[in-house]
Specification:
With 367 residues, the chain is α/β, with parallel strands linked by helices. It has two domains: 247 residues, P-loop containing nucleotide triphosphate hydrolases (Rossmann fold), CATH 3.40.50.300; 111 residues, CBS-domain (Roll), CATH 3.10.580. It has 14 helices and 16 strands. The strands form four sheets. Strands 6-7-8-3-9-10 form a six-stranded mixed beta sheet, with helices on both faces. The chain has a four-stranded antiparallel beta sheet with strand order 2-1-4-5, with helices on one face. Strands 11-12-13 form a three-stranded mixed beta sheet, with no helix packed on it. Helix 5 packs across helix 6. The chain is elongated and about 85 Å long. It binds adenosine-5'-triphosphate and magnesium ion. The site of adenosine-5'-triphosphate has 12 residues, from helix 1.
Amino acid sequence: MITFSGVTKRYADGTVAVDDLSLEVPTGEITVFVGPSGCGKTTSLRMINRMIDPTGGRILLDGADVTTIDPPTLRRGIGYVIQQAGLFPHRKIVDNVATVPYLLGWDRKKARDRAMELLERVGLDPKLAGRYPFQLSGGQQQRVGVARALAADPPVLLMDEPFSAVDPIVRASLQEELLRLQAELHKTIVFVTHDIDEAVKLGDRVAVLRVGGRLAQLDTPATLLARPADDFVREFLGRDRGIRRLSFISSAGIRLRTDLLVPASADVSSVRDADGAWLAVVDAEDRPLGWVAAKDLPGSGTPADAQLAPYGTFVAGRDSLRVALDATLLSPSGSAIAVDGAGKAVGVATREALDEALAAVAGDARG
Ligand SMILES: Nc1ncnc2c1ncn2[C@@H]1O[C@H](COP(=O)(O)OP(=O)(O)OP(=O)(O)O)[C@@H](O)[C@H]1O
Ligand SMILES: [Mg+2]
């Protein structure tokens, strides 16, 4: 755990970059520092590995004041990733990744083996190992930066806007990759960004800072979106806050109707008077095939004889309420088909059931 206790940084010219910052970064979680330019994010981050020392207060790493640990020792346990990767231009990729192991005196083969293993871990083709940084795309360079930070398996990772310099699609894939890695590695990560969407996507908890280096709010993404502490946080969170919050709420609470599922092979006479304007037709393995309006059922035969309309699905309990809502918008029936992990239909979430679930969510919001 990293503890900021009344931390202040006043630069020599009098600028107060960080003002009386107190917060905890729990072990094994991603804590995001987010806020506008100049709010002291980088300064806060660099005080953890002593690239900058505070002028007031203390930072504790697992209980030890970092200013009592000499910087090289401290940094061995802390990986650091920056924007545009900051790779050494005249070293091959494999040697960039092996930087810290070399410094630690590992033998060359062991360090390079570790580097190769990490390149694969971050989703890079091992063939790139012999190239120089300029021969890689921006996104590939960022992955190398992450691999390099992980090389000596440090328990703590500091990431300062690591994905800001790449286009939105590459950025999204780097974010996914980080979450995937973190699910395996459980590092203690402090991630700095000025992008609130990135913050709520990656953070277990998000610290919103305001200019002057003051903490405005520290909460989980769901709580932040539901209950911003003040106008500054509310404005910083921006538009669509209500919709975005649904991403953090499980679809488990949605009431499902099984009576609206009909087998494709059923006799239409047995489903004709079903209670509901639309029916979800499923195959012999219970997989959804599409919607049919009760009025469009053929006079005889099976629902499979009708023209089936497109449908949206969500995995009940695993997907969020946002995915379920999206699925209703993809179906002319206005309802969504709930499936299990294997893709079998388990029920129908009607618009009314969605409304009930959304009303429960709205009751929990403020501001
Ligand atoms: N060496 C320095 N001397 C004086 N002031 C500094 C120094 N470094 C940073 N500052 C100031 O401290 C404040 C916080 O800077 P910092 O780099 O921590 O902000 P940041 O939140 O990381 O911003 P950005 O999003 O633009 O990276 C700013 O006002 C900055 O100008
Ligand atoms: Mg910065």
